[in-house]
């Protein structure tokens, strides 16, 4: 994934990038529980980066891990 990301960013220097953390993803899951969907907002980014240490925290929760997968399923490059 790291090499793919490096290649992607090299070939798309104007790409809109977001870096998310565990707290943001937790917030998104709480919004989703209240029928407020952030996915449409996140679709404005070309790439969403999740640092490896954040990914470990995300995978401590099935809800957060499922939400991250839902982003991927909606065509968001994570």
Automatic annotation (TrEMBL):
Entry protein name: Uncharacterized protein
Taxonomic source organism: Clostridium beijerinckii
